[in-house]
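Repro:
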Amino acid sequence: MKNAPDGAGPGADPRFLGAVATAEAIERGVTSPRWPQLGLPVVERGPLSIFPLARAANTDPEEGLARLWRQLSMELSFIYGGYDLRVNLVRREDPYGVLLADAGSVGAWSIWWRVKESAVVFVRSIDLEREVDTLAFHVVPRLWVWEPRGLPTGDPEPHDRQLIHARDAADVAWVWPD
């Protein structure tokens, strides 16, 4: 694991190690984005790719995958943030955060980190109808979660407008693949 401290992680939970391995595979795949070559399950919707990580029967935000989500959020922040602070937050009031909240995301924020021109967002969602708690990575264009500061104001470039439109129309809800 990149930057991981010795003995990091909740040792016995294979979902933890699987999630970290998936993050590393995504980082390799983003440089030449061919998800099928990674051999991981993925839900693809245009510029949005969702990598399922874990699921549990649960509807209580304080139960189910809550502990694993907290542990992975800390570990991923360490691995992908470190001292250069590359890990950022998607808040519920941010445009992508609103989409996540509408789809059942849990908590006031989700972490994300940059990989090339993409962002990997770590999301926990609870589907009340199906009574299932899930963890997933969303790989999205970086502009979906980050707006450059200090640039001249005005209309975004045509490509950026297309990405913003795609973000606003994105369907981030998903069902665990069989």
